[in-house]
């Protein structure tokens, strides 16, 4: 399959390793990965902050970059950005009275998958150690990000993949389904409430005794990691893609 | 545009400011955490028992939508049938009209005291406060409402108005405020209920007029319904001579059999019970039994305005179950008072600004009171997509402020800059060339611990990791494309 990588702006700029991991996993399975260079961002920050006309060029850019016949499916290592592409892009086009753009947005959304969705639903991965050679000899815990869990209904796809990684121990995270408090600009507009939510998430992660908290969204992991770092807590954060890409030969270091 | 809602629908200060204060109330946060987590677990348990829960939610949503599409017709049908059975229908455009209608009806009876069954609509229009100015005393008979009223407090939850108080605090309020009370009252639930019962029973037997809300009105039969737990509602609905119901116009359902769906959805979503203890239904006047003067005030107060917003109108589907606030991580930490309005939590954050208009007082700050985690939408028995409407209203808020400010805010500038930077692959690529500078700024610790301006909100509790030396985009060009 020819797979277009939607790296997402935060991974592109802050966590390039996670995008490289995504490429590695897919290439390991024998697929061809392309990176449409016109891509930038899904525009979620603008829309979730209420800046709709300002979001339009960002959303249009994404649709233009991905509304091509050059690939079979698109994939992003982020539940939140995929949810935005699928649900928010059509909304924005409708709000701003652009029916043609809406149609194209829906078409792009249909071909866009979150990483675990693609791996499990399309590529039939059920055993990461066997099928991907994944190996990561650490104790981790897992935070299911809200948009993946609720907007995309990912269920246990990410967790099940992690559990089948060679050498790994996955400890259950108490109150896992509770939001970490990030919410984009919510974290600065309502910084006090956001911090109170993060405090509980950090406490719960520390209670598991894991050396890392994994998840499928770099933005939530940056938020959680920022809280862990500030409180001097031991656990690190590591994206699902990085753990799946880790092998016996090239084991990712925490 | 139809008339905006008025009354107790307003946030009086920006939400972050109210939240900051409430977050400091550790007793309230403890009470609320305990209460919301208990209800959450109960709800999940009883919802899990139904194999067709998702289909029930779809049915609830579809029935409500069908009511809204022909709301005028449904209301006129209800009026015809309610009137035919001896009831009197009154129409109120807003809170002031509704308050006046109710006051006049009470004055006609010559009473200066009324008993009330818990009603969100009368909270919304500030009926008790209005009656007080008219020399009429209203007695709340729902236990939690009674606690709030005796404590000179405000409700903080639509189902459990005194959720922010624990048992000991309730006992203290009873001891201080009840005219006749056992001085040795303990905080055991049974003793507290006994004290309330003794206090209320006298009122029920003496009252000539009762005021109620309604959970639903059925258009095809002209029937009204109240769903409750304590039986105090039924006392109000049956003992007095005059019964005045105040109900939002969105509560009308097309058919009698629609109750089937809502009686499965509502108790499970609200108290986490399969069935609530008391459901009272009445259709106009029954000869020689119950109230002989039966009135209903159909209240708009901004609802037509909500109906006119195609992205927001599903907010009118709300059946006031409170599941959204019980699962909301923001509500759990700030409590209901932080939202200002009668309607707190996620539903309040959309309903209040939709009813009043986004520019009213500080209601524009309410749609931001959410991390958009979506727990509310998942729990909503009538599938109101609250996160989507929150985002929609943020758009309305930003649009409303456009051009009003002489100097753009930091957020305005950030978004404007972001629109350029993230609007093209080559623009973000250009900016990413500066990543090594960020890495340099992070220094040896590889952490950024303090940022200026609005970004300080982030660094108040979180570090930012040092950026990489090279973006993925550049790595791809260097490694993949050059080979």
TrEMBL record, chain A:
Domain Cysteine-rich: 3-85, 140-224
Record's GO cellular component terms: cytosol
N-terminal signal peptide: none
A single MF term (Gene Ontology): oxidoreductase activity
Pfam families (alphabetical): CCG
InterPro entries, alphabetized: Cys_rich_dom (IPR004017)
PANTHER family listed in its UniProt record: LACTATE UTILIZATION PROTEIN A, UNCHARACTERIZED PROTEIN YKGE
Name of the protein: (Fe-S)-binding protein
Species of origin: Glutamicibacter soli
TrEMBL record, chain B:
Chain segments carrying region Disordered: 459-483
Cited Gene3D superfamilies: Alpha-helical ferredoxin (1.10.1060.10), NagB/RpiA/CoA transferase-like (3.40.50.10420)
Pfam family, one: LUD_dom
Molecular function terms, GO-annotated: 4 iron, 4 sulfur cluster binding; metal ion binding
Any one biological process term the GO annotation gives: lactate metabolic process
Alphabetical UniProt keywords: 4Fe-4S, Electron transport, Iron, Iron-sulfur, Metal-binding, Repeat, Transport
Biased composition (Basic and acidic residues): 471-483
Entries under InterPro entries matching the protein: 4Fe4S_Fe-S-bd (IPR017896), 4Fe4S_Fe_S_CS (IPR017900), FTHF_cligase-like_sf (IPR024185), Helical_ferredxn (IPR009051), LUD_dom (IPR003741), LutB/LldF (IPR004452), NagB/RpiA_transferase-like (IPR037171)
Keyword hit for Transport: yes
Keyword 4Fe-4S: yes
Residue ranges constituting the LUD domain according to the UniProt record: 77-298
Record-annotated 4Fe-4S ferredoxin-type domain positions: 315-384
Superkingdom assignment: Bacteria
Protein name: Iron-sulfur cluster-binding protein
Organism this protein belongs to: Glutamicibacter soli
């Amino acid at each position: 399959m020819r797979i277009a990588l939607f790296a997402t702006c935060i991974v592109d700029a802050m966590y390039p390793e996670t995008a490289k991991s995504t490429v590695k996993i897919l290439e390991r399975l024998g697929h061809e990965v392309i990176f449409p260079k016109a891509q930038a961002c899904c525009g979620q920050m603008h829309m979730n902050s209420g800046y709709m006309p300002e979001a339009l060029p960002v959303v249009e850019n994404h649709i233009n970059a991905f509304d091509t016949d050059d690939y079979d499916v698109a994939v992003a290592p982020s539940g939140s950005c995929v949810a935005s592409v699928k649900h928010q892009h059509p909304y924005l086009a409708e709000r701003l009275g652009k029916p043609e753009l809406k149609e194209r947005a829906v078409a792009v959304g249909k071909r866009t998958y979150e990483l675990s969705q693609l791996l499990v639903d399309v590529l039939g991965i059920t055993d990461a150690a066997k099928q991907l050679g994944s190996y990561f000899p650490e104790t981790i815990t897992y935070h299911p990000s809200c948009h993946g869990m609720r907007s995309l209904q990912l269920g246990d796809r990410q967790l099940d993949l992690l559990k089948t990684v060679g050498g790994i121990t996955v400890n259950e995270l108490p109150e896992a389904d509770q939001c970490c408090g990030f919410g984009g600009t919510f974290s600065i507009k309502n910084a006090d409430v956001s911090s109170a939510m993060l405090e509980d998430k950090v406490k719960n992660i520390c209670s598991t005794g894991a050396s890392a908290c994994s998840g499928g969204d770099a933005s939530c992991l940056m938020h959680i990691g920022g809280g862990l770092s500030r409180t001097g807590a031991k656990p690190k954060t590591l994206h699902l893609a990085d753990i799946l890409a880790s092998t016996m030969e090239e084991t990712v270091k925490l | 545009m139809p008339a905006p809602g008025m009354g107790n629908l307003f946030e009086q200060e920006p939400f972050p400011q109210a939240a900051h204060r409430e977050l400091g109330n550790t007793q309230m946060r403890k009470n609320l955490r305990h209460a919301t987590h208990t209800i959450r677990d109960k709800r999940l348990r009883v919802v899990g028992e139904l194999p067709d829960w998702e289909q029930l939610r779809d049915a609830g949503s579809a029935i409500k939508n069908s009511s809204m599409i022909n709301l005028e017709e449904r209301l006129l049908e209800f009026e015809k049938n309610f009137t035919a059975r001896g009831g009197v229908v009154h129409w109120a455009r807003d809170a002031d009209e509704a308050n006046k209608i109710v006051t006049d009806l009470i004055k006609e009876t010559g009473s200066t005291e009324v008993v009330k069954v818990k009603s969100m609509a009368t909270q919304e229009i500030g009926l008790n406060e209005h009656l007080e100015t008219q020399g009429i005393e209203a007695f709340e008979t729902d236990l939690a409402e009674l606690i709030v009223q005796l404590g000179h407090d405000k409700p903080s939850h639509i189902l459990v108005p005194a959720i922010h108080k624990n048992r000991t605090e309730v006992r203290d309020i009873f001891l201080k405020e009840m005219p006749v009370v056992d001085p040795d009252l303990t905080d055991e639930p049974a003793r507290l209920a006994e004290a309330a019962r003794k206090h209320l029973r006298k009122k029920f037997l003496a009252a000539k007029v009762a005021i109620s809300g309604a959970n639903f009105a059925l258009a095809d039969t002209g029937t009204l319904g109240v769903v409750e737990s304590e039986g105090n509602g039924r006392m109000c609905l049956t003992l007095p001579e005059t019964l005045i119901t105040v109900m939002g116009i969105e509560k009308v359902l097309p058919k009698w059999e629609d109750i089937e769906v809502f009686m499965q959805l509502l108790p499970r979503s609200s108290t986490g019970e399969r069935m609530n203890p008391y459901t009272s239904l009445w259709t106009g006047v029954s000869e020689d039994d119950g109230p002989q003067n039966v009135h209903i005030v159909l209240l708009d107060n901004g609802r037509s305005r909500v109906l006119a917003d195609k992205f927001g109108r599903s907010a009118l589907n709300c059946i006031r179950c409170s599941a959204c606030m019980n699962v909301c991580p923001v509500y759990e930490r700030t409590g209901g008072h932080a939202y200002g309005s009668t309607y707190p939590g996620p539903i309040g954050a959309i309903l209040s600004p939709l009813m009043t208009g986004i520019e009213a007082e500080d209601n524009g700050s309410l749609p931001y009171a959410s991390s958009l985690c979506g727990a509310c939408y998942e729990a909503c028995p009538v599938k109101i997509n609250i996160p989507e409407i929150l985002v929609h209203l943020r758009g309305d808020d930003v649009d409303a402020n456009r051009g009003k400010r002489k100097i753009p805010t930091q957020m305005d500038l950030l978004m404007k800059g972001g629109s350029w930077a993230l609007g093209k692959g080559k623009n973000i690529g250009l900016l990413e060339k500066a990543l090594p500078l960020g890495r340099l700024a992070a220094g040896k610790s590889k952490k950024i611990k303090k940022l200026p301006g609005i970004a300080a909100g982030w660094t108040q509790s979180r570090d930012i990791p040092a950026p990489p030396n090279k973006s993925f985009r550049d790595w791809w060009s260097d490694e993949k494309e050059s080979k």
